[in-house]
């Protein structure tokens, strides 16, 4: 499966899970920031995965990237 197709697969199947998990952790008050962070993580996957390869646990990679993006956004 090509990287863009893999990211599309994760968008379709993991987006809701990532948003739900981060919403439980950070609260619904940050829902807009959470959605932005998850989309940013998926965009990062599109740029990083072709160069470095798909990680062993892509769902975990996306979660960590989204969480880091969200924490960065909440700090500002």
Can you give keywords for this protein?
single chain, about 80 residues, mainly alpha
Account of the protein in words:
The chain is mostly helical. It has one domain. It is 84% helix and 0% strand. It is built from three helices and no strands.
- How far from one another are the termini? 37 Å
Structural class: mainly alpha
Strand content: under 5%
* Helical proportion, percent range: over 70%
Taken in chain order, the helices and strands follow as HHH
Low-confidence stretches: none
Radius of gyration: 12 Å
In total, the number of strands is 0
Characterize this entry briefly.
With 76 residues, the chain is mainly alpha-helical.
Secondary-structure map with pairings?
Blueprint: H1 3-26, H2 31-52, H3 58-75
